[in-house]
Amino acid sequence: MNIFVVNSGSSSIKYQLFNWPDEQPLCSGLVERIGSAQAEITHRVFGAGAPAEALRRTLAVPDYEAGLREVVRLLTDGPTAVIQGPAAVDVVGHRVVHGGETFTGPTVITAVVKAKIKELFGLAPLHNPANYQGIEVAERLFPRARQVAVFDTAFHQTLPEYAFRYALPTALYTEQRIRKYGFHGTSHQYVAGRAAEHLRNPDARLITIHLGNGCSMAAVRGGRSLDTSMGFSPLAGLVMGTRSGDLDPSVLLHLLGPLGYTTEQVSTLLNKGSGMLGLAGSNDMRDVGRALAAGDARAALALDIYAYRIRQYIGAYAAVLNGLDALVFTAGVGENDALVRARACQDLEFFGLALDAARNENCTGGLRDISQPSSRARILVIPTNEELEIARQCATL
Ligand SMILES: Nc1ncnc2c1ncn2[C@@H]1O[C@H](COP(=O)(O)OP(=O)(O)O)[C@@H](O)[C@H]1O
Ligand SMILES: CC(=O)OP(=O)(O)O
Ligand SMILES: [Mg+2]
Q1: Residue 11 pLDDT
Q2: For binding substrate, which residues are annotated in this chain's numbering (predicted)?
Q3: CB of 150 within 8 A of CB of 393?
């Protein structure tokens, strides 16, 4: 069986094709800057005889349909072909960011499921519309395949009510479903599973720290999410690439009232113009690192704020878990940025956490332990693989 996994973002598509049940990736790739004449496709083929280098191509990709069509061409034609045609794909697994309270596990996509995903556009305006478009295009391009949705929110549906409810009048929850949902669940679930295996402890108390463009943390025990830093939307919690994370809600009222912002402007400011971009001038942590090395004071303060927020959540989640077996760093920043990891683990001796500076600096490859042997809890770096986790969940259906 072949499972094709699609992760449609606001301007990109990440994809991976797996042969099942051996979990063997046949190829993977990324289409960036969809909607531009200078879009870029990076495509990698795995297995015997495959070219070692990824293929990179710049071309016009006006929309998702054009992007996925190009990917299908790479899968089926010429030297990159790994399958005969679209009919060789049995299942298409889609990352869908918001599943509300309706979806607690992988779900075969029907007209009813699509309508529900559409209803949730307002709660995840940066993500669900793109995910939905990815589904519609995949239905056209892989008409024979079963389409399955795997929701970012599903893993966090185990949060106890006292953790997911806000202290607002009850009717706002019962009638309007205003509550904490949490996101990046597929990633937290995947790395928590890997960590528990590594520790040989299925009941491990873990704090998983996903630092990508969007950033979130989760408190996980026995493979169940007990709390997480994102909330009603993916805007809450940590400082992110372009999102503010936690704020006093009065700041919004001040922007909307005395400062005369429209709701649209506030949304753009908090989702797209804040975080590291707003503080340091770039949402890419590599730029912030370079600016810091060049003595830029704004970059130094931005990194202080970013790391301080992570440390606050480590403290909170150690309390939620009543102890800690491991801290797990993952995603683009968490896997690659030794300075961010070092700053996030600073001054946590109280919790018995001791980072090994050399292991942290020289850390490449798969799962790595970067703590000192004397550390009471392990500090792990585990590359996330949302696509593999999505394929596994599709296979369970
Ligand atoms: N070598 C690196 N050092 C520091 N940060 C990095 C490095 N490589 C990637 N990143 C960061 O990772 C981010 C993207 O992470 P990723 O998990 O791919 O995010 P997303 O899935 O949200 O697009 C980039 O914005 C960049 O800041
Ligand atoms: C939910 C979310 O924030 O996703 P991403 O990090 O991919 O933007
Ligand atoms: Mg991501």
Answers
A1: 80
A2: 95
A3: yes
